[in-house]
Specification:
This protein is an alpha+beta fold. It has 5 helices and 3 strands; from the N terminus they run H-E-E-H-H-H-H-E. Strands 2-1-3 form a 3-stranded antiparallel sheet, with helices on one face.
Length: 104
């Protein structure tokens, strides 16, 4: 389950947000460390630490971490944009880099 997987990931209290950057360095998304998206910050942070970026291989691992939410995202496109993004990365083969925004 996602809640159990989340407990195994590194802490993110030092992060205010994560910027996702495309190959040209343009910001494509901002994940804020706040209720409702903190879990995604933890997942994306872990993937970046493990794989160096959000690669298709990292995205596949991310879908495993999201567990039951991945199936819900597949059944309801748009409901889980951070999972939709991982599915898109796998489909297109793109890689997104991460830029951390540290908490004050």
């Amino acid at each position: 389950m996602f809640a159990d997987n989340l407990k195994k990931l590194p802490g993110i209290s030092h992060l205010a947000a994560i910027n996702l950057l495309d190959a040209d360095g343009n910001a494509v998304a901002l994940l804020e460390n706040k209720p409702g998206s903190a879990g995604s910050v933890a997942v994306y942070n872990h993937l970046a630490q493990t794989y160096g970026a959000i690669t298709p291989q990292a995205a596949q691992k991310g879908l495993e971490i999201y567990a039951e939410h991945t199936e819900d995202a597949r059944a309801n496109p748009g409901k889980h944009p951070n999972i939709d993004r991982l599915l898109q990365i796998i489909e297109t083969g793109i890689t997104l880099r991460i830029k951390h925004v540290f908490a004050e």
